[in-house]
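Project channel, design review

CF: Before we commit to the Amycolatopsis camponoti constructs, I'd like one complete example in the thread so the newer folks can see what an input/output pair looks like. Taking Pyruvate phosphate dikinase AMP/ATP-binding domain-containing protein.
RD: sounds good, go ahead.
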Amino acid sequence: MSLTDVVAPSPAPENVAALIGERLSLSALHQLGGTLGGYSFVKVVVDRENEVIHFLNDARHSFHAIYIGEEILGVPEERVRADIDSYNQDFYHAPDRRFLLGILARHPQMLSLETVEVDTMPAELIREFHAFVARYVDPALPLVFKPANQLQERIVREIPPSELPRVFAHELFSTAPFVALNPGTATGRLRAFRTEAEYRAATLDWSDIIVMDRVPEDIPRLSGIVNARHTTPLSHTNVLATGWQIPNAVQVGALADVERRELDGKWVEYTVDAQALSLREIAEPATAAPPSWYAQRVTLEEPESERSPIVNLARLRAADRYRYGTKAANLGELHHVLAHGSQRLLGFYQVPRPPRENLLPYLARLLDVPAGASVPDLAAAARRLLDDHVRVPRGIALPFSLQRRFLESSPRIQQAIGKLKMALELDAREIEPLCVELQGLIRSARMPGALAGEIDSALVSQLAGVRTFVVRSSSNAEDLAGFSAAGIYESLNHVTTAERIFASVKEVWASLVSVRSVRLRRQAGISLDECYMGVVIQEQVTADFGGVLVTTNPMNRADFRTVYVNVSPRVTDVVDGSALPMQYLYSTVEGGGRTVSLGDATADLDSRAHDQLQRLAIAGRLLQGHFSPDYTFGSPVDVEWLADGDHLHLVQLRPYSV
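CF: and here is what came back for Pyruvate phosphate dikinase AMP/ATP-binding domain-containing protein:
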């Protein structure tokens, strides 16, 4: 019996390699393929030489190349893997290629056909591929071509839709029912909120799993998040969820599903994986075991709060974080890399990453140098890329000791700090009002003349001529393993006068004792006595657009090749979640990118901007090597950036939690 005769959508047996030369029924699609992002898919190979189509059994062959080698060419898997670069060149780039490779996915109203992201298939092959596959799929569902990269997007736009039905990735993403943001499993009480007012009126506990259209930035530490509407993976709430290692996903219609199943207020087991999320009702435990993070206390390096000078950011190195905070120290380290280079820049590409045993030829292609270039030549080319295109805005760093001197200048502030510490020790109900009172005292206290003079003198000597500043937080209690602190401290833009600079510095200092920051640090076991706040004052850059880059794919962490970029006219739109940014994926191995979502924009960026984003992706990957904490060079970084003409201005860099 052939697979097309099987009605039940049970998986195909592993001894079946593929459905060959037959029409693919919908039941066979489910049997042969897998599920990703809520959609069923099956891999497709068209053998042009023999005019035969192959629908691969995913349980047996998860890679096109291995299937072609073993089942068609008679080449053992080991030999294919050993020469994978040569095979990939033939399969994805040769103009006279024998095979056309792709993925067929089922959507509610159609089937989509796409190639792999690196495929440079020209227009005539795209037409041929679509027409051939259309003869072998269920005619009840229209078959549309989905461009897999920006090159194909440009090609497809030049073909009349009547000749090639198409759908773009961003069109599908906007209607995708499910997006995995952070995989994992948790148990807890499900809390569904249809409005922010309902959320504000509720008291949340660490064991809660919340379901909302848009999760507010000030969430306490929870056990899980379900976003009932689309969001960006790089919003502060989603970055926090990643750092907390709690399951987090987008599930459109989740609120209605929770209501239908009457799960609100019930205990559930919540699981997120790459394919789907599940909410399974369970019995409420007699005593809920505390989460693992209760036992995993975050440890801070011992800070240095004795007198340190206000310095130019370019004078700092990463090791200065104990005096100036991680943000300032990382910016100083960036200045150093741009000024002096780094032998670690090629680190990511010098480590074999199966099935790619040697990534250096790929880097050579990205940097436009000969494939056989030596490591020193590649390092020089990497340095040129950074020299030509990457900048860090000028700025100064205020040390922890300046904050300490300010706090000690006011007896009322000292008294309020003592009360707050006592309340924290006793777990008293007065913690929140004491935080609010202390913040008010910090904001209203006069900046001592000596401190104001030091700040003013540093600005005059280092940043004279700057019209507009950004005043950023730089604490020792952020960007830590297990405690990212994304969005909990203040940063202020569009600051101009000396008076506003002093007020903004105090606002940043006050954010160290906000209700939310105190609560989250307390949950992580971080004492108020250990926490200090430095301040970065930088030139504000005028830019065409900006956003956030992470050197991983948050929606598929196993994909080592790809980086994820959010783009918006304002970086703050990305991180605060107030607007949906444009979203892109760029390969830092084969090169090329694709548009994932246009967000709230009405049109995509132009080709020049896409070229700029590709350079950003490569620069981010190089900097990942320098900032890697180990010698696998695999730890991703999170970069806030602005683009202006041919220049990329990096305004923040920190580790990205995975």
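RD: helpful, thanks. Residues 231 and 580 are 7 Å apart (CA to CA).
CF: The two ends are 46 Å apart (CA to CA).
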